[in-house]
Design goal:
- The chain is built from 19 helices and nine strands.
- It is α/β, with parallel strands linked by helices.
- It has two domains: about 170 residues, no CATH class; about 200 residues, no CATH class.
- The strands form two sheets. A six-stranded mixed sheet has the order 1-3-5-4-6-2. A three-stranded mixed sheet has the order 8-7-9.
- α11 packs across α15 and α16 packs parallel to α19.
Length: about 375
């Protein structure tokens, strides 16, 4: 039933969700997490709303979040619980007033900035919040323009505090139909039938692929579309190795791009061995930080590729007593710093284990006294 030309609840688009729906879809683990926090009150707020009669009071479950404009791809769960534990629960005095936009097309109140406060309120059993209307979207405004207006407000509020990530800004550009030429190219290559990946609203819909990522638009674009990039694999090769990536996907761009690099650059008869390696304890027993943390500045994916390649070689060497991964398979090695080249030489030429090579890199740099020129001579095939 319509109401004087205004929207009805049944017409509200699916990208507008209540905070309960946001939690259930994007961070359902917080329900169990809050139950284990004995020091946090879960039966209401710790205080009353100050000057309640002078404020707009709204039901928490009646406030909507535009998932196309908000950072649902980067909910800061650890920070959220840190704040709750520090306070012992939800405090209206600390939360202040929640900003709202009135969406006249659908007759709903939308929160353009304050999603984390809404989540904290619901987790703590808080029914109502003090709010203030900051703006409205007209009845005849398109959903894309409404999303853009809400996101711009969020950006302005957080410009000097906690600005949205590049991945979030890319997503909002897509959702608000404001993509630039490069963003459109990203969308196209991720949708390509040879690629079929989903990167935070770009590319193939999640229902049509097993490869979805919350971040990584730029690095995937470099790997798939920019043939001069260090990590380039290209759509044709990706099509060949796609089943391997699906089998071993981590959901993390830096890791899966590294897998794609090795599946794409290894001889065909070594791909099955690399798959075995990714299933092995030699790979699984190392935590994520070993592969991705502390990489060479501006060469994060390249560092991960090198670490994986050296560990894979050690895995093969234990079976064959030979080095099967060679420096020339790391096409960008000469662009890396001396320490990284030294590490590769220790692993792939001098037959040191990866752990021994790390120790050598830390403690024995002066004893080695090997110059960049000598290392380049070692890797003359690169």
């Amino acid at each position: 039933m319509t109401n004087k030309g205004f929207g009805t609840k049944s017409e509200i688009p699916s990208h507008y969700k209540t905070v309960e729906e946001v939690i259930n879809q994007y961070c359902p683990d917080v329900w169990d997490m809050i139950k284990k926090k004995n020091g946090i009150k879960r039966t209401g707020s710790l205080d009353e709303i100050p000057m309640k009669k002078r404020k707009e009071i709204k039901k928490v479950l009646k406030i909507y979040i535009n998932t196309k404009a908000q950072r649902v791809d980067a909910i800061e769960i650890s920070k959220l619980f840190e704040n709750l534990e520090r306070e012992g629960g939800f405090k209206h005095e600390s939360a202040g007033t929640l900003d709202l936009f009135r969406n006249n097309k659908y007759q709903i109140d939308v929160c353009p900035d304050g999603m984390h406060r809404l989540i904290k309120a619901l987790l703590c059993g808080v029914d109502e919040l003090a709010c203030v209307y900051q703006n409205q979207t007209p009845i005849d405004m398109s959903d894309e323009d409404a999303t853009k207006k809400e996101f711009n407000y969020f950006q302005d509020k957080n410009e000097h505090n906690s600005p949205a990530s590049t991945s979030t800004r890319n997503r909002v550009a897509k959702e608000s139909n404001e993509m630039n030429q490069k963003q459109q190219s990203m969308d196209d290559i991720f949708s390509d039938r040879r690629v079929k990946i989903h990167v935070n609203a770009y590319g193939t819909p999640t229902s049509g692929t097993s490869l979805h990522y919350w971040e990584g638009h730029e690095v995937w674009y470099q790997a798939l579309a920019q043939d001069k990039n260090n990590t380039y694999v290209g759509p044709d090769v990706f099509d060949e190795i796609r089943d391997y990536i699906v089998k071993h996907t981590t959901g993390k761009s830096s890791m899966d791009i590294s897998f794609a690099y090795w599946f794409g650059h290894l001889p065909h008869d070594m791909r099955s061995y690399f798959s075995l390696f990714l299933d092995s304890n030699e790979f699984k027993n190392r935590d994520a930080a070993f592969w991705t943390a502390g990489g060479q500045h501006n060469y994060g994916e390249e560092t991960t590729i090198i670490r994986i390649g050296c560990c894979f070689n050690e895995f093969l060497r234990q079976m064959t007593s030979e080095n099967k991964v060679t420096p020339d398979m790391i096409k960008f090695l000469r662009k890396m710093n001396v320490e990284t080249q030294h590490f590769v030489e220790n692993c792939l030429v001098r037959n040191l284990s990866v752990d021994a090579a790390i120790l050598d890199q830390i403690f024995d740099k002066e004893d080695e006294d090997q110059t960049a020129e000598e290392l380049n001579q070692t890797f003359h095939t690169v």
